[in-house]
Amino acid sequence: MSVGVVMLVHTALHRAEQVIRHWSAAGCPVVIHVDKNVGRKTYDEFVASLSDLDDVIFSKRHRCEWGTWGIVAASQSASALMLKKFPAVRHVYLASGSCLPLRPIGDLKDYLAKRPRTDFIESATTADVPWTQGGLDFERFTLRFPFSWRKQRFLFDRYVELQRRLKMHRRLPDGIIPHMGSQWWCLTRQTLSAILEDPERSVYDTYFKRVWIPDESYFQTLVRLYSQNIESRSLTLSKFDYQGKPHIFYDDHLQLLRRSDCFVARKIWPHADQLYDHFLNEENPLKGAEPNPGKIDRIFSKAVERRTRGRAGLFMQSRLPRPGHENGFTSAPYSVFEGFTELFEDFEPWLARMTGTRVHGHLYATDRVHFEGNQTTFSGALCDNAKLRDHHAQLFLINLIWNTRGERQCFQFGPTDTQFASWDLAKDPNAQISVISGAWAIPLFQSNRNFSDIRANAAELQRIESEHISALRSSHAKARVRVWTLADFIETPMEALQTVLDEMGAKNLRRVTEAPKMADLTGFGQFLQNLKNQGMHPYLMGDFPADNAPAPARPTRRKPYLVR
């Protein structure tokens, strides 16, 4: 007999009985503490169910509530009874009713027999632990916590605020340095008896009764006074989420638990029949390996990250993240073209042919959503109704990109469209935005409308595009943006188009040898001059000569020759 088990039980008593019999069958005495919140009838039935085991006894009951002294008192009572009734025990293993042995008990006995003076308890100073919640790291030792965090939260918070305001601080008992760690430990008889029989125990108990979550600091602190050899780790595999709540293991975690090589795991779902049937079988193959929970830490870290950050571009419709706190606005790169369909007559089919991407029209047009091929519905049941789109313009774009993962989406945008998504496009790192500023004037130039109406419309469109370009150039913009004026673009259109395609990163892309058909701009310079004459200043287009005449050709220089 070398290992005794102290088990704290408060629920799922039928599973606790199953595990207790497993410990007892391996020759380990078990002292059980049953939470006083468990009804008397249920408790008596539980005691009767284990009455056939001579090495299983019950300790004095305490009322246990998370974060309070009751859990420490229960551990003290059961541990003292273990040391008194079973003098052959050399190590005491603290477990809960939801703990499950993962390896043969004989393997644990052999492991501890080789380390007769080693205490296995996670014990680190408050500055070295990352898991404290609510900002109460060292303050849990210097303030008083007489109220329950769960049942009296209002009083708990107000009393903490009062102590901070009055600068009240408790004095730590002499000789101790607060440490914290997992409450599930395995201590040697010498260390545990020294803690329980310390002449100053009443002082320590009085102090820790008003410490917050004392079960994570009482033994972890006092063990530093008496232990000859501490390994600051727990032999129990227990994982916690970002809120400090324990992960629960289910049947589909079987292979994960096998990989950990740990002796005991917590917390097991009471209905995980497959886990209990497998690991309580003495023939299970986990034997001889050094406990290494680090093997699965990476998986848990990814799970916590997925839980807290989610996936880029995937939003929970019922609970949107705070603006700026989402893990990526969209899920994949996409391209936005502004002014290209106004300048080129067949730009969309040309771009689709050159890049093999899905090229839409103006997705944010005021009349409807112009999907590729003039479709009325698109991937993910997105419809072309403008009102539904504008109900949440940002989510429309997010859903479009998410529903078409693996296929790059391209669409047109401009000042004639609704601008609800303007800033979102600018701040999205996945967006690649190419702008020909002032190209919106070409449809006005080609229209047959009253010039006074054209002037008013041009002024409004220029204002909208100017604000949009300001957003694209702001310090908050994260999109990849390239802006040409209309005059600069038509000066070298092939070079500009090649730049656009290169930035898209299209695969197997060749040099541009053909360009889409450009709109006829004869007289466009005079059109801009007329706008100026009417009192408007069209500056986004760049410099166009008023007569739009081609530059005079240089005279051909004749080849020099010699006259004899």
TrEMBL record:
Report keywords, A-Z: Disulfide bond, Endoplasmic reticulum, Glycoprotein, Glycosyltransferase, Golgi apparatus, Membrane, Metal-binding, Signal-anchor, Transferase, Transmembrane, Transmembrane helix
- One Gene Ontology term from the biological process aspect of the record: heparan sulfate proteoglycan biosynthetic process
Where's the DUF5927 domain?
266-564
The record's subcellular locations are: Endoplasmic reticulum membrane; Golgi apparatus membrane
Segments for region (Disordered): 545-564
Membrane topology, from the record: Single-pass type II membrane protein
In terms of InterPro entries, this protein maps to:
DUF5927, Glyco_trans_14, XYLT
Q: Which GO terms describe its molecular function?
A: metal ion binding; protein xylosyltransferase activity
Q: Which GO terms describe its cellular component?
A: membrane
Q: Where is the composition biased (Basic residues)?
A: 555-564
Which PANTHER family does the annotation name? Answer: XYLOSYLTRANSFERASE OXT
Would you tell me the protein name for this molecule?
Answer: Peptide O-xylosyltransferase
